[in-house]
Amino acid sequence: MPITQFASPLSVSEGLELVSRIDEEVVYINGGTDLVIQMQSGKLQPAWLIDLSQISELKFIKQDEGRIKIGSGTTFSQIGESSLIREKARCLSQAASQVGSTQIRNRATLGGNIANASPAGDSLPTLLALEAWVRIQGPRGSRRVSFAEFQAGNGSGLKEKELITEIDFPVWEPKEKTQVISAFKKLGTRTAVTIARLNIAAWLEVDSENETIHHSRWAVGALGRTPFRLEDLERELHGKRAIPALAREIADRLTEVVDRAIPGRASQEYKRQAIRGLAYDLLNDLFPRSEQIIQNW
Question: How many CB atoms lie within 10 A of CB 256?
Fold first, then answer.
């Protein structure tokens, strides 16, 4: 790997001051679980490699002013083990716990997963469902954009020498007689250490007595260049109860999503069936009190 220069700053300000004086290509590295592979294959050969792993200010999970805030250098192991994330954003906790092997989760970071922008990145659908925002800093200053805009490819993504410093999303406090629930499911070639062939996340506000859906957000990944929200489905589910008939309706709608997203692809038929299974698994996880939602789907 023909890296000519390497630096390991101890703070964000030190790192940004350093890169502001560099006229060559700069790449940031933290966990390196994806980046090192790209460098070894020759796909990426930057002149400078800036190691962010020693910057403690990028490693945190906290609740502040009605939002959960996560430092970009926080590992998936730390996210998966966080009681705060399990309580307030269960879908992200589940996704973090399913990223690769234990060794990968101990190295891979949330900021790196976002910056790598893999269509199959496990955290990405959950960030859409949670309506997350991304804080970015660079030599020219800082900015904050919604994750939906960041990954949409409309110019809101990372610019030259910028890095992600924080991810945040709102904490939705349930109203009287309601509860907020969320879940994540993925399908890969093996039960562990696998890149998702399909993944899905859902966040719902429901009546705590009769499980009527007041509000929901759904997102899928590995069906295109970027994960995306299912806004038509979200509108259709408003006011409906979580019963077996609704589970079949959701599975049918998700099958239609696959047909629209990858028409004619070799994987289309496989994913049409697979997403139905994920839908039932997800709904059984979200509504464990309901009579068996999965019935010979």
Answer: 13
Residue 62 has pLDDT above 50, yes or no: yes
pTM for the full predicted model: 0.92
Q: Is 124 exposed, middle or buried (0-12, 13-18, 19+ CB in 10 A)?
A: buried
Tens-digit pLDDT profile for residues 230-241: 999 999 999 999
- Local structure of residue 181 (DSSP, 8 states): E
Domain boundaries, the chain: 5-51, 57-170, 178-286
**What is the spatial distance between Cα 283 and Cα 297, in angstroms, rounded to a whole number?**
13
**Which amino acid does the sequence have at 7?**
A
In tens, the pLDDT along 255-296 reads 999 999 999 999 999 999 999 999 999 999 999 876 555 554
Residue 181 has pLDDT above 60, yes or no: yes
CATH of domain 57-170: 3.30.465.10
Within a 10 A sphere around the Cβ of 5, how many other Cβ atoms?
Answer: 12
Predicted pLDDT of residue 33? 75
What CA–CA distance (Å, rounded) separates 225 from 216?
Answer: 23
Burial of 291 (0-12, 13-18, 19+ CB in 10 A): exposed
Nearest C-alpha neighbor of 4 from the set 46, 52, 50: 46
CATH of 178-286, one of 3.40.50.300, 3.40.630.30, 3.30.390.50, 3.40.50.2300: 3.30.390.50
Distances (CA, A) of 239 to 176, 195, 201, 205, 296: 16, 35, 20, 11, 26
DSSP string, 133-156: EEEEEETTEEEEEEHHHHTTTSS-
Q: Is CATH 1.10.3680 correct for 5-51? A: no
Q: Which tokens sit at 109? A: 């970071």
d(CA 149, CA 95): 21
